[in-house]
Amino acid sequence: MSDIKLFVSDVDGTLVTPDKRLTDAAVAAVARLHEAGIAFAVTSGRPPRGMAMLVEPLRITTPIGGFNGGLMVDPSMKVLEERRLPAAVAPEVVALLDHHGLDVWCYQGVDWYVRHLDAPHVAKEAATVQFSPVVDPDLGGIGGRVVKLVGVSDDPKAIAAATTALRDRLGHAVSAAASQPYYLDVTHPSANKGRVVAYLAGVLGVDESQIATIGDMPNDVLMFSRSGLSIAMGNADPEVQRCARRVTSSNDEDGFAAAVDRFVLG
Q1: Residue 233 half-sphere exposure toward CB, CA atoms < 13 A
Q2: Per-residue pLDDT tens for 106-125?
Q3: Is the pLDDT of residue 1 over 80?
Q4: Strand locations in 55-110, DSSP E?
Q5: Which residues does residue 112 pair with via DSSP β-bridges, in sequence order?
Q6: How remote is the C-alpha of 229 from its chain's centroid?
Q7: Residue 105 and residue 180 in contact, taking contact as beta carbons nearer than 8 Å
Q8: Which residues pair with 151 in a beta bridge?
Q9: Phi, psi (deg, nearest 5) at residue 202
């Protein structure tokens, strides 16, 4: 067995199937981690409430990293740490996303704001996270309480252009990375999955070399760099796979469970 003490997993595209199901194989794999004395944690671009349904079946006892680390909560959803976008920067981000033709979502605390209920991916996201957004043309008022902004578009070129523009203009003040091909997540500069790994290492008293991480998207790469063992999903882009030490099968082939058995427990 490896010397891994903590396994940190992304959720969408990794832990769950394309239709957002937690398979029996994934649940059993996490149970085997617990039996081996290896702690298990999750982090995601999702709001923390959107991961509450994972706590019981996976017996999660570790802090949960929502909004890519913008909000750390315990399994009861009690806030442990919050990193908000600077108040002066949030309106600039919204304007830039609008300029590139992306629909904009805003998360403030536990609330999710959208401009239109029938906007692209809203219904799908509500079904995934199991709660509904607040409809507000002003997105709840863009001020000092914003934890995450999301630019939404089915045009990959628009997502890429907005990502580049944000990093060029506001890279010192925000973290911008895709969490899905159609979502561009914008958070506090230190609210990223690399920071989540560092936070968990400190809280749990585990050296980063004893941590394994698994994910499928560009926002997972920063946590790859903070772990001793990094695993990319088979459904990840080649660029993401090149950043990981190992590659497993896809999330519609129980690639998460395969990674646990082959790379962590094997």
Answers
A1: 27
A2: 999 778 999 999 999 999 99
A3: no
A4: 64-66, 71-73, 79-82, 103-108
A5: 107
A6: 18
A7: no
A8: 104, 184
A9: -70, -45
* Structural domain boundaries enclosing 255: 6-82+191-264
Bridge partners of 175?
187
How much is the pLDDT for 2? 65
Whether residue 155 sits in one domain with residue 112: yes
Q: Is the domain of 178 the same as that of 232?
A: no
Answer yes or no: pTM beyond 0.85.
Answer: yes
Classified as helix, coil or strand, 62 is coil
Dist CA 48 CA 61 (whole Å)? 14
Which among 136, 161, 187 is the end of a domain? 187
What pLDDT sits at residue 110? 76
Q: What share of residues in the chain are helix, strand, coil (percent, to 5)?
A: 35, 25, 40
CA 73, CA 224: separation in Å to the nearest integer?
Answer: 22
In total, how many domains does the chain have?
A: 2
Cα pseudo-dihedral 111, 113, 117, 121, rounded to 10: -90
Does residue 206 lie within any of the structural domains?
Answer: yes
Instruction: Transcribe 213-248 into DSSP letters.
Output: EEESSGGGHHHHTTSSEEEE-TTS-HHHHHTSSEE-
Q: To the nearest 10°, the Cα dihedral for 97, 169, 236, 71?
A: -80
3-state secondary structure of 171: coil
C-alpha distance across the termini of the chain, in Å: 6
Pick the last residue of a domain from 187, 218, 246.
Answer: 187
Q: Verify that 183 and 195 share a domain, yes or no.
A: no
